[in-house]
Sequence to fold (194 residues):
Amino acid sequence: MVKYLDPENDFGAPRRRKQNPDLAARRQKNAQLPREEALEAARESALRVLDRTAASSGQIRQKLTKAGFLPEIAEEIVNRFCEVGLLDDQAYAAMLVRTRFQERGLVGRALVQELNRKGIAPHLQPEALAQITPEQEADSAQMLAEKKARSLGNVTYPQAMRRLGAFLARKGYSPSQCRQATNAALADREFENK
Fold:
């Protein structure tokens, strides 16, 4: 397919993300609000975020400071929301681990990275990660390896081993789990060069 370039744009230059002109003005306005007005505006902003999706206290804090609210205002809103139960990082972490494991098959390191990205404190992570048993991890690794093995096509045995192992490693499985699931998934398959 041929892609035609618009002569008005720079040829070959990567597209830049357009800055919202109102964002800079809104940030400046939020930073200059009197304390009571800033608290009310930050509270409304945080409630809008929580109305759309669940979030961690770290995410809310980050969104409020990005919107131009002073860090102490953001911290006060987060603390208040934690007190009244609108924010619960432990419950959010548990939900995140369950859904990422069930939907994507993530375990171990991959889940830790996801929790860190979402702003979950390290001391809350072990309890959330403990929901997944080693048996569930092994079953998931086996299921993912078998599913991926069906889509490999014409590859040699070493290529299949590398591809399956790398696929499972990106999902957070340990080297021994990768090896075991890969060997089991490829045991019944026919290869030209084994």
About this structure: The chain has three domains: 24-87, 88-130, 138-194.
